[in-house]
Amino acid sequence: MLASSKLAAAVPIGTSARTSAALPAPLPSTCSGRASLLRPACPGLGLSGSTPSGCSRHGVITRVMRSTSSNPAFTFGKVEEAVGESYGRSGPPMSVDGAVQKTSLMLAVTMACAAATWTQILTGNVALLAASKGAGLVAALAALVTMFKPQWAAATGLVFSASQGVAMAGYSLMLEMVYPGIVMNALMLTFGTSASMLIAYQTRIIKVTDKFRDGVIMVSGAYFITMLFTWVLSMFGVRMPALLSSGPIGMGIGLVAAGLAAANLLLDFDMIKSAARARMPAWFEWYSGFSLMMTLVWMYTTILRLLTMFAGGRDD
């Protein structure tokens, strides 16, 4: 499954009015400094549809993509190139409401596919349990295609959501058979945490400042490097049981991972709002939904694995 590499709740993030203005071509100069991102140094950006003299929309978009989230969907792939190719084309820019709607649809597809797979397996379709493992590979492929062809997110994002639903259903059902009730607890914690993060972000109880953003990105990077290193060692037969077992170290790492997933939700919310203000093209709504789904999948599987540890199991 994709959660260990963060490969992903339909929740309202904010409001933004759509306009029919086309995206203007970038100007030669750039705005400097993260503090200038969508702020007075570039007055009117994202509000009037025009880019003031001395500010480059491409420069702003570059900073939006590179400095506001640690989600690999935002920080890797070909998003900047895809946005650049969209310059000068007619059509309205993205809005936060549009991103919420696309995320809602993807989440609904994931839940429907997961429910259908779960039901079919319980009624005796054992072959579907084996197929759920292959669905994880399909989801991984769809995620990679989406990251490198962001304009296709409307199609590939739905493929990712559907296949991820099938994959998570098979994985979750196997754990449910061993630890009854664990899946419902994981779902409640996932959606409860997501709602709490949204409320905290909207009410500014938690502010996504530069220091907060840098800290989350730094710790997330360290976590993924550690997990990648552990995975590479396992390919050569070297096991690191302290990181994987249900002991204190393994539980501690699981708690850190769950906390990082929650913090990355805040960064994703802020990323989407910033992208809407920067007047990204309309297809970015689908890409934003795909990106949020990646974080949610990561959060759910991390919580599920953590609950398995607390129940005395071991999830290698």
Shape, per Cα inertia axes: globular
- Helix proportion: 55-70%
The number of helical segments is 11
Number of extended strands: 0
Q: What distance lies between the first and last C-alpha atoms, to the nearest angstrom?
A: 13 Å
Stretches with pLDDT under 50, minimum 5 residues? 1-56
Q: How many discrete structural domains? A: 1
Name the helix and strand elements from N-terminus to C-terminus, one letter apiece. HHHHHHHHHHH
| Rg for CA atoms | 20 Å
Arithmetic mean of pLDDT: 76
- How many strands, which pairing sense, and closed or not: the largest β-sheet? none
Strand content: under 5%
Structural class by secondary-structure content: mainly alpha
Provide an overview of this structure:
This is Bax inhibitor-1/YccA family protein. It comes from Chlamydomonas reinhardtii. The chain has 316 residues and is mainly α. The protein has one domain (3-16, 90-310). 65% of the residues lie in helices and 0% in strands. It has helices at 57-67, 72-75, 79-85, 96-122, 126-148, 153-178, 182-202, 210-235, 241-244, 248-277, 284-310. Helix 1 packs antiparallel against helix 3 (79-85), helix 4 crosses helix 11 (284-310) and helix 7 packs across helix 11 (284-310). The longest helix has 30 residues, at 248-277. The protein starts with 56 loop residues before the first helix and ends in a 6-residue tail after the last helix. The model is unreliable at 1-56 (pLDDT under 50).
